[in-house]
Backbone:
């Protein structure tokens, strides 16, 4: 009988311990949730895991300076700026494109943007000779915001080494993951909450650099476009 009572007590205590452990685990998770920044809680609660915050079409190759490349027949590459870049900078007043016949190097300055009288250079994702520029984008810079991968293209470049150039670029799932992480990196690097640059749906607003950088927004933009030395 004594043995039976011992087993019953042991089982009861075991259940009590499990309840206590479960309570502590829930309490820890609750504390972590409550003590993270309010904006972070909102974004985490609102943005589903399968929702992307930036447009990243398939079939394109992306440079880490946020230019994109679409190879076409005849060693031609169509070039533009990606959705992260246009959301980072916001409204563009003018686009400065190189003249036809110019030679570009991959990872070097390819074109420039004018925003509030500030000039922001961007890097070319491909090396070669400029054979065509998009005159429409010069007349209507808003196309960068409306259709960055279509009517908002910038240059066409003749590049005999276009296949080799694409090996230095990102594409597919890797490109999507990289672009999503680019926004998250703004928070630890600049010590600012992402709340001011996220809409209610958790999606980034246009003009992220202005929202986080204040008077130094141009330098912030250049840093993330890899042209801070320009």
Residues:
């Amino acid at each position: 009988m004594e043995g039976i009572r011992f087993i019953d007590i042991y089982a009861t205590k075991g259940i009590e311990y499990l309840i206590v452990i479960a309570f502590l685990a829930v309490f820890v998770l609750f504390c972590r949730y409550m003590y993270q920044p309010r904006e972070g809680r909102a974004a985490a609660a609102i943005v589903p895991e399968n929702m992307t915050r930036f447009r990243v079409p398939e079939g394109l190759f992306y440079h880490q300076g946020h230019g994109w490349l679409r190879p076409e027949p005849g060693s031609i590459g169509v070039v533009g700026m990606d959705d992260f870049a246009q959301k980072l900078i916001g409204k563009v007043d003018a686009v400065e494109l190189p003249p036809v016949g110019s030679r570009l190097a991959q990872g070097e300055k390819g074109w420039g943007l004018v925003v509030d009288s500030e000039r922001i250079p961007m890097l070319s994702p491909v090396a070669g000779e400029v054979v065509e520029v998009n005159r429409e984008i010069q007349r209507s810079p808003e196309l960068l915001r409306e259709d960055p991968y279509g009517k908002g293209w910038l240059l066409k470049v003749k590049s005999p080494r276009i296949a080799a150039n694409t090996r230095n670029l990102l594409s597919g799932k890797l490109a999507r993951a990289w672009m999503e992480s680019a926004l998250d990196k703004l928070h630890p690097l600049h010590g600012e909450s992402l709340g001011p640059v996220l809409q209610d749906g958790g999606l980034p607003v246009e003009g992220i650099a202005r929202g986080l950088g204040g008077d130094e927004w141009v330098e912030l933009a250049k840093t993330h476009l890899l042209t801070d030395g320009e």
